[in-house]
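Here is one chain, start to finish.
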Amino acid sequence: MSAEVAFLVPCHRAEATLPAAVRSALAQDLVRLEVVLAPDDGIDYLALLAAQGIVDPRLRQAAPGPVQSGPSAARNRALAMTAAPFIAPLDADDRLAPGYAAALLAAAARDGAAAARLHARLGDGREIVSPGPLDDLSWRDIVHADVPIFFMSRRDLLGRGWPEELRFAEDMVVNLELRARLRRYGVAEGANYLYAIGTNSLTTAADAGREAERHYRLILAQLDEGRIEIPHAERACVRALIEAKRQRNAAYERARRQGYGGSFYDFRL
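Its structure:
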C-alpha cells in the first residue's frame, strides 16, 4: 500500500547520526510511511545504512548530486520524490519519540497540519520544551519560538515547499505560511520530537548573530514584497514580531563583541 506520510530528511555530514534518526522513523507504528533521504554532500546514504543493517523498502533517496545546496533545497528534492498526502520534516541528527507519527497524523488529518512538541537538551543539561500545550499557535508563538517548530502537513498546504534562498529561519517562514492557510494550527498531544543542538548548528556558530541578521533582513524584505504568503492585514503584526526578534539578535551580537562567550541559545534563555 502507498505511504500516508513521508518524512523528508536532508543529509549533510550525517554519517554518525542518520542511523538513529532513520530507525526512530521506521519504528513508528499505526502509520503507513516512507522516509525520503536527500543527500547534500554527495554521499550515498542508502548504501551507508545498508552497511549497518538498515534495509527497508520504505527507505528512498534522492540521487546524490548537489553539494551544500542547503536544507531547504534538500527537503524540496525529497518532496519531489514522494506522492504521500502528508509531509513531515525530520533532521538527520534528531529522533522521533514512539507514537509521534500516529499522533501528528490524527491531528493533521483533522486540521490540515499540526505541530509537534520539541524537546532539546543543551550542553549543560538544561532542556527546552517548545511550544507549550497550545490549541492554536499564534504568529508570536511561531516567530518567538526558541527552537524550530516541526510539523506534519497536508501536502497541498506546503505551497512552494521550503524557501531555498534561506538557510536560517526557513522553518519559521514555512510555519508562518502554514498558519496563514489554516483555521487552526495546534500542537498534537503525544507527538514528541527529540531535537539535537549540535556544534555544527548555525545557531551555535560563532557567527550566528551575523547570519541571523542577514537572514532576518531578507525575510523582512520578502514580507514587504508579498513573497511570504501572509494576508496583507496581518503583515504589520508579523513584521513587528520579526523585527523584535531581530533586535534580540542584535543584543546578542553586542554582548558577544563585549566578551560574552555563550551560544545564542544560552543568551536567549
